[in-house]
Specification:
This protein has about 400 residues and is of the alpha/beta class. It folds into two domains: about 5-340, no CATH class; about 340-394, no CATH class. About 15% of the residues lie in helices and about 45% in strands. The chain contains seven helices and 17 strands. The chain has helices at about 5-10, 65, 90-95, 105-115, 340-350, 355-370, 375-394, and strands spanning about 5, 75-80, 85-90, 115-120, 130-150, 155-175, 180-190, 195-205, 210-215, 220-230, 235-245, 250-260, 265-275, 280-290, 300-305, 315-320, 330-340. The protein has a 17-stranded mixed beta sheet that branches. It is globular and about 60 Å long.
Length: about 400
């Protein structure tokens, strides 16, 4: 029997401040296993905003990305360690590869309209000492992207993908981690305020492989990322980490789906966000499905949001769907709260001015995730960007 658990049933508050139940009362009436995936655009109607998966998103501003219209590719710069190669793949070859299918209209259009599928290959047993770096820059036009990352068996690699500039961009990114591999994927969204970005990121975890997917979202008018993890064999581990900071007028939405269909696999999801300014809006939706065959599963998901000013709104919806009682553990937590005045008072009582005290509290809030990114240049840049955001508020 399937157990659908919503936030009101199994969530505990894990930080000080008010607990948000803005979306907690909704229990999905459809299993995640039943949602549509397809290579055909016709299988995905244009979203109206009434659908469960689009109900938080300002779809009226995204019509260009729902249309079957070709665009201009983003400008790409790359830095490849020795042994890493880049090639292209035809759509027929991709569809025959067994890679996950698109799961919404924006993703299937990205797959259909992208000029070519960019394939990045890390050879088996390689141990990269430097990250693979890809920088995608928009120049104000409509754009579609489709990238496949293949990491060979027992390889170790870090891939950093940066998005910047201005664009109306839809993308499909697939990461296939070979058996026994150790892969970190960092995706940074630092768009101009007018940019629109819809992305589907699929992660396939091989047998006994370890994959970390880290999403850092700091810019863009609308950024909506769907990260989906699945397992190609037992013993795999997936960690989904995220940091986001929304300003006035920005909509940042992160959705995760971890599909436990193989036994004895592990997943851990932790996202933290801060919001400031009128109409700043963030959405986090975490879905975990533990199928009947996935005995020995151990999973946990956590989302925390820090509201720095009036007028900002954070929606947080964790869900567990469990089809077997033979698991090691499963849980989730979600909390949203305002800035802790007691922490500010404590620091100011020791001679620290208010602006510096606020910066220290926010840095501490994000530190547990930022320190696990593992790429010093990204960690330093992220903290500098957060400082700039706080200076603007001050």
């Amino acid at each position: 029997m399937s157990l659908l658990a919503d936030k009101t049933q199994q969530t505990q508050s894990v930080s000080q401040g008010s607990h948000t139940d803005s979306a907690a009362a909704f229990v999905p009436d459809q299993s995640r296993a039943e949602r549509t995936t397809s290579y055909a655009v016709s299988d995905f109607p244009v979203p109206s905003g009434r659908e469960e998966e689009w109900r938080f998103t300002p779809v009226d501003r995204l019509q260009a990305l729902f249309a079957e219209t070709s665009g201009t590719p983003l400008r790409r710069e790359e830095s490849l360690p020795e042994g890493v190669t880049v090639s292209t793949l035809s759509k027929d070859e991709w569809q025959g590869s067994g890679a996950p299918k698109p799961a919404d209209r924006a993703a299937v259009i990205a797959a259909a309209q992208a000029e070519a599928i960019t394939v990045l290959d890390v050879p088996a047993e390689a141990e990269l000492t430097e990250p693979v770096r890809l920088v995608l820059t928009g120049e104000g036009a409509l754009a579609h992207g489709h990238t496949l990352v293949r990491v060979g068996n027992f390889a170790k690699a870090t891939i950093v993908l940066r998005h910047e500039g201005d664009a109306q961009y839809s993308e499909l990114l697939t990461v296939v981690a070979g058996d026994g591999s150790d892969v970190t994927v960092v995706t940074v969204q630092e768009w101009a305020d007018s940019a629109l970005h819809l992305g589907q990121h699929d992660v396939v975890v091989g047998r006994d492989a370890k994959v970390r997917h880290i999403a850092v979202t700091l810019g863009g008018g609308i950024v909506r990322l769907n990260t989906n993890a699945s397992y190609a064999g037992p013993g795999g581990s997936f960690e989904g980490l995220g940091v986001y900071f929304a300003d006035a007028g920005q909509h940042q939405e992160h959705r995760l789906f971890v599909d436990h269909e193989a036994p004895h696999c592990h997943s851990n999801v932790e996202y933290k966000g801060a919001l400031q300014g009128e109409t700043a809006h963030t959405v986090w939706v975490g879905d975990v499905l533990i199928r009947a065959a996935a005995e020995g599963t151990d999973t946990y998901e956590l989302n925390r949001n820090l509201i720095l000013t009036d007028g900002a709104r954070a929606d947080s919806v964790p869900n567990l769907e469990i089809e077997t009682g033979e698991i090691a553990g499963a849980g989730h937590a979600s909390a949203t709260g305002r800035f802790d005045d007691q922490q500010l008072f404590y620091l100011q009582a020791r001679g620290i001015d208010e602006d510096t005290a606020r910066r220290l509290v926010v840095r501490g809030f994000f530190a547990s995730i930022v320190g696990r990114i593992g790429v010093p240049e990204v960690e330093e840049h992220l903290m500098e960007a957060i400082d700039r955001e706080l200076e603007a508020t001050a």
